């Protein structure tokens, strides 16, 4: 299993594209993303970035953030179509339990994967 440790500013598509090329079954993102004030805009932006990465790479994501009064990134499980299947309540101590099983791709996921593979066919990420 390959891991990416994200820093506050790094949910860049190119890191996830490397994982896509490695054919990962699950991408795990570890955050220490907090603020000194309640920043719900950033929290939702980070969640949106994670959903986008899951969809464009057709790969589920487990996102884990530290417990803090002002979390700015979610602790959640997102499926390959971008649906949040399980999430810890924001700004609360908690533990996410999710029984991950690799699933067959659905129609839309197959189409996105085929298009990604077609676009990447002649590209190099070395």
Description of the molecule:
33% of the residues lie in helices and 13% in strands. A hairpin with a 5-residue loop joins strand 4 (76-78) and strand 5. It has a 5-stranded mixed β-sheet. The chain has helices at 13-21, 40-57, 107-120; strands spanning 4-5, 27-30, 61-64, 76-78, 84-87. The protein is elongated and about 45 Å long. The protein is built from 3 helices and 5 strands, in the order βαβαβββα. By secondary structure, the protein is α/β, with parallel strands linked by helices. The model is unreliable at 1-9 (pLDDT under 50).
Topology:
Layout: E1 4-5, H1 13-21, E2 27-30, H2 40-57, E3 61-64, E4 76-78, E5 84-87, H3 107-120
Count of distinct strands: 5
Topology as H/E string? EHEHEEEH
Strand order of the largest sheet: 1-2-3-4-5
Radius of gyration: 15 Å
End-to-end Cα distance: 20 Å
**How many helices?**
3
Outline the low-pLDDT stretches.
Answer: 1-9
Main structural class: alpha/beta
Fraction of residues in helices? 25-40%
Shape: elongated
What is the mean predicted local confidence, pLDDT? 89
Main sheet makeup: 5 strands, mixed
| Approximate strand percentage | 5-15%
What is the compact description of this entry?
This protein is an alpha/beta fold and 126 residues long. It is built from three helices and five strands, in the order βαβαβββα.
Defining traits:
single chain; 126 residues; alpha/beta; five-stranded mixed β-sheet; 3 helices; 5 strands; 33% helix; 13% strand; disordered N terminus
